Amino acid sequence: GQQVMQIPQYQHVQEGEDFTTYCNSSTTLSNIQWYKQRPGGHPVFLIQLVKSGEVKKQKRLTFQFGEAKKNSSLHITATQTTDVGTYFCAGRLGSGTYKYIFGTGTRLKVLA
Amino acid sequence: GAVVSQHPSWVICKSGTSVKIECRSLDFQATTMFWYRQFPKQSLMLMATSNEGSKATYEQGVEKDKFLINHASLTLSTLTVTSAHPEDSSFYICSARTGAGANVLTFGAGSRLTVL
Fold first, then answer.
1. Helix (H, G, I), strand (E, B), or coil: what is residue B53?
2. Beta bridge partners of A75
């Protein structure tokens, strides 16, 4: 079946360091979304990428969608303790469905 | 923005009993809702797609008789875990999208089920 893998599984960084999580799909995606889940919380939508090669920025966060629409990345510049949580990518498999397959997630810990 | 309310937020039940979890869209109509299951420190696994007025579509490996889904109105979907067993203990999360063209999933706060 379709799989969406994320690496790394865990990442500990010192506050102020950068962080990147990578998302790889076994199949081409219609679009990709990124979510953040704080410990004990529920996923919260961050952004959606639709076009091949698309890059979007939200303050310290930079999101990229690969040219082949099978991979994506989230980069955080100068992490802060508020960035702690698990980051999930979620890929939409086709334009005819609104099903999203969630990636395995990357848990980020930021050490003050 | 769109808000999805999920109730109860946590529930403890005895093995063999049934538990109903509600998912409501508070300020929008949700033609489609999704039910996910999340084990500790793991990803969200899609269980089923709930469509208003029609039968739910279950993902492979999910027992439809075990996890009954009803989407009787445009603002409410329910998941009933029937004859619950300890292995059904998990975090269940619903999400909703609005009408045509809306791609963003809005998640409920989740329901933590513990079966003794």
1. coil
2. A20, A62
CB contact under 8 A, A99 and B93: no
- Residue A104 CA to residue A89 CA, distance in Å, equals 8
A9-21, pLDDT tens digit by residue? Answer: 999 999 999 999 9
Can you list the positions of beta strands (E) in B19-73?
A: 19-25, 32-38, 44-51, 57-58, 67-73
Encode pLDDT of A19-55 as tens digits. Answer: 999 999 999 999 999 999 999 888 898 999 999 999 9
Q: Which residue has the tokens 């966060």?
A: A61
pLDDT of residue B93: 94
CA–CA–CA angle B52, B115, B72 (5° rounding):
10
| A positions 60-99 inside 8 Å of B (CB) | 88, 90, 92, 98-99
Q: Look at A98 and B43 and tell me if their CB atoms are within 8 Å.
A: no
What does the pLDDT average to over A78-94? 94
CB contact under 8 A, B103 and A104: no
What is the rounded distance in angstroms from the CA atom of residue A108 to the CA atom of residue A83? Answer: 8
